[in-house]
Amino acid sequence: MIGWEDVYKVVVATVPLYVALMLGYGSVRWWKIFTPEQCGAINSLVCFFTLPLFTFEFTAHVDPFEWNYLFIGADVISKVIIVVVLALWAKCSSKGSYCWSITSFSLSTLTNSLVVGVPLMKAMYGQMGVDLVVQSSVVQAIIWLTILLFVLEFRRTGLDISSNTSDVTEPGKDLEGNNMDLASSSSPSYWSLMKAVSVKLGMNPNSYAVFIGIAWAFIANRWHLQMPSIMEGSILIMSKAGTGTAMFSMGIFMALQEKVVACGTSLTVFGMVLRFIAGPAAMAIGCIAVGLHGDVLRVAIIQAALPQSITSFIFAKEYGLHAEVLSTAVIFGMMVSLPVLIAYYAVLEFIN
Question: Which residue ranges run through the membrane (predicted)?
Answer without folding.
Answer: 6-28, 40-61, 67-90, 97-120, 132-152, 208-225, 237-256, 268-291, 328-347
